[in-house]
Amino acid sequence: MESVNDNSEQALLAMVASGNELAFLKLFNLHKSKVYSVLLTITRSPECAEELLQDVFIIIWKRREYLLRINSFESYLFIIARNKSYKALKKAAMERKKAAFLRPEELHHNDTMESIFASEYQQLLHQAVNGLSPQQKQVYQLVKIEGLSREESARVMHIHPETVKAHLAKAVKSIRAYCKASFRLFFIF
Length: 189
Prior knowledge:
Layout: H1 6-17, H2 21-43, H3 46-62, H4 73-102, H5 109-130, H6 134-145, H7 150-157, H8 161-188
């Protein structure tokens, strides 16, 4: 595989950020093998890894205007790959649970309860996140959902990394308290 030094990768990222499709193709060719290996290791499915590889680079293309703000492109790339893999595995697990739910002879009481609790928790989490201040919500979205580091999030938001850390701590504390209180109410009813 071709080796890329920091200057040439930054130049390549700058061209991609400006919308250069040939530069994007070169970026894809430089990183596709490593990303595919990571995806295959996580999913254990060549078909799924291939599909996710395309999805990862679609995300890179859609977010290309942020490429110059990222310190380590390779880390950013692998965080996206990891997150896409975990989301795909979670989706497959939920589909298996749904399929089991549709076949009553295979339905187990524990699976039903877990599914109900998971659904309720996702709804509570969504409500808790929506109740955050705008900056806390944006920090939570960038760090916890999109997988950016605090430093990368700080660059995107044009604030200091310590401010991101403080907002994230407050957001997590607020979400935890909201979910805990809501779950207690759920069990009471």
